């Protein structure tokens, strides 16, 4: 019999690094030797712990990851590094589990590891990424309690939080504060501010800040600075200036261009009826080695559908994407479906909608709503009802405006009164509308006080544990009919 190969701690780390399946990696970590020796347990290295924790975290196998961390905490030969906990915090952030991320940050000292501003910034970034602006403010108030000093990364997150809250003034105050503390702004700092200024049509201020980057702070603009500026110029109708700014980018040999700039310009060229220049843009991209991505193609599809009404060209763009091994996404199809519906070609829109799964792209809630609205606008209310049934089956909700449009269309003929009732009951069973939507819809479409129907509807609503909704719905019916 062939003798089993002995695995050293170093060899285990190598095997863990090479293993792509997290389940197998965990088995290997648990049982590194084929014949364990109870009197001489295998001593895993800190590197092995780091590798398996990261693999489990990326795979969102959090229970297993926590077990490994618990074992690691019992190790006396080494202490965990703060960088590992930063990664764990990020894993929880990507899974939108901010409470678990906070617990990880709080227990770092229990691993004989000193917390620094680095792990604080990781938690701050996760908190902001989960949309908890108040949590971000609360953490900043606790900075002194942790004995930590903010750095540029801290301020970058805080400035971004102010921008997301719609407070540009607060962002500027933080910018001034970091400078007063001797903390040099980074290109990320300027990128956040420039994007906010452009989004609020403050282009002159954005360009002045771009100039200050170079002259006052000696920070060189990158693509993330230029892109919002070009988008802002295109939005304000200054397309020629946007093209000039693109040339400025090209003249800088150290600046890495990306497809975002070109996608913005392509969409703008379609809007101002300069489609002929798009070919030149695509050729330039090819010449400098930038491959069109899904955003670039979607910009072209949007131009063909919304501006040119050239659906043959839009479908050809889809085919070109497949040829170039760039998979169309749901936005690609939704854009064409919306264009077809607006052009009154609901049959073609329905056909493309049904064909999406075969094209390896499943319709999302937006796809359903676009087709539903298109069918209602075309007077195809029974077909719209079928789309509604599919939406309810998938757990998608429909707003009051669209539901009212369907019901009013069905009510346009007396023969559809039964279909109206069945539609109401179906939506009630699926809990397919919120309370306010129910009040709006029912108050507008019910024309006679039919208590039996109210009772049936209330029963359906009770089945979904929304009795309060049913009570208010009954009140709306009574008020409407009185």
Explain what the structure shows.
With 482 residues, the protein is mainly α. It has a domain at 416-482. Helix content is 69%, strand content 0%. The protein has helices spanning 9-18, 22-30, 46-58, 62-73, 82-94, 98-106, 117-129, 133-141, 143-146, 152-164, 168-180, 187-199, 203-215, 223-235, 239-251, 259-271, 278-287, 294-308, 311-323, 330-342, 346-355, 365-377, 381-393, 400-411, 417-429, 435-445, 451-463, 467-481. Helix 13 packs antiparallel against helix 14 and helix 27 (451-463) packs antiparallel against helix 28. It is globular, with a radius of gyration of 29 Å.
What's the layout of helices and strands?
Blueprint: H1 9-18, H2 22-30, H3 46-58, H4 62-73, H5 82-94, H6 98-106, H7 117-129, H8 133-141, H9 143-146, H10 152-164, H11 168-180, H12 187-199, H13 203-215, H14 223-235, H15 239-251, H16 259-271, H17 278-287, H18 294-308, H19 311-323, H20 330-342, H21 346-355, H22 365-377, H23 381-393, H24 400-411, H25 417-429, H26 435-445, H27 451-463, H28 467-481
Helix pairs in contact: 1-3, 2-3, 3-4, 3-5, 5-6, 5-7, 6-7, 7-10, 10-11, 10-12, 11-12, 12-13, 12-14, 13-14, 14-15, 14-16, 15-16, 16-17, 16-18, 18-19, 18-20, 19-20, 20-21, 20-22, 21-22, 22-23, 23-24, 24-26, 25-27, 26-28, 27-28
Keywords: Repeat
Pfam family, one: PPR_2
InterPro entries: Mito_RNA_Proc_CCM1, PPR_rpt, TPR-like_helical_dom_sf
């Amino acid at each position: 019999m062939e003798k089993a190969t002995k695995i050293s701690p170093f060899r285990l780390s190598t095997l863990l690094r090479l293993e792509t399946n997290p389940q197998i990696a965990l088995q290997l970590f648990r049982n590194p030797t084929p014949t364990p020796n109870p009197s001489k347990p295998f001593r895993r290295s800190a590197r092995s712990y780091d590798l398996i924790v990261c693999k489990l975290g990326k795979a969102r196998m959090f229970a297993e990851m926590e077990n490994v961390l618990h074992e690691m905490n019992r190790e006396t030969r080494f202490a965990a590094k703060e960088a590992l906990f930063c990664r764990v915090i990020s894993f929880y952030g990507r899974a939108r589990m901010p409470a678990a991320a906070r617990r990880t940050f709080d227990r770092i000292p229990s691993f004989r590891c000193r917390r620094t501003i680095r792990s604080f910034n990781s938690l701050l970034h996760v908190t902001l990424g989960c949309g908890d602006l108040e949590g971000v403010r609360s953490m900043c108030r606790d900075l002194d309690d942790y004995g930590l000093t903010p750095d540029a990364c801290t301020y970058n997150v805080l400035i971004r939080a102010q921008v997301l809250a719609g407070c540009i003034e607060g962002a500027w105050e933080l910018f001034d504060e970091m400078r007063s503390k001797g903390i040099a702004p980074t290109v990320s700092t300027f990128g956040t501010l420039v994007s906010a200024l452009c989004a609020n049509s403050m282009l002159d201020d954005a360009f002045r800040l771009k100039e200050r980057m170079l002259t006052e702070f000696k920070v060189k603009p990158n693509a993330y600075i230029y892109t919002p500026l070009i988008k802002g110029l295109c939005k304000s109708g200054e397309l020629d200036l946007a093209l000039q700014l693109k040339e400025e980018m090209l003249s800088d040999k150290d600046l890495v261009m990306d497809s975002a700039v070109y996608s913005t310009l392509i969409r703008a060229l379609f809007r101002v009826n300069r489609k002929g220049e798009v070919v030149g843009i695509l050729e330039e991209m090819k010449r400098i080695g930038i491959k069109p991505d899904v955003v670039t193609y979607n910009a072209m599809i949007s131009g063909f559908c919304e501006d040119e009404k050239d659906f043959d060209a839009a479908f050809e763009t889809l085919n070109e994407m497949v040829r170039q091994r760039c998979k169309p996404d749901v936005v690609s199809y939704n854009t064409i479906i919306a264009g077809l519906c607006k052009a009154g070609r609901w049959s073609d829109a329905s056909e493309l909608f049904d064909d999406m799964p075969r094209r390896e792209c499943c319709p999302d809630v937006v796809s359903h709503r676009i087709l539903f609205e298109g069918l209602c606008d075309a007077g195809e209310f029974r077909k719209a009802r079928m789309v509604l049934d599919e939406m309810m089956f998938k757990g998608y909700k429909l707003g009051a405006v669209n539901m009212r449009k369907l019901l009013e269309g069905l009510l346009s003929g007396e023969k559809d009164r039964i279909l109206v009732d069945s539609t109401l009951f179906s939506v009630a069973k699926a809990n397919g509308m919120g309370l306010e939507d129910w009040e709006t819809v029912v108050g507008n479409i019910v024309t006679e006080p039919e208590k039996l129907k109210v009772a049936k509807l209330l029963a359906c609503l009770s089945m979904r544990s929304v009795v309060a909704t049913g009570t208010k719905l009954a009140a709306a019916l009574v008020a409407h009919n009185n």
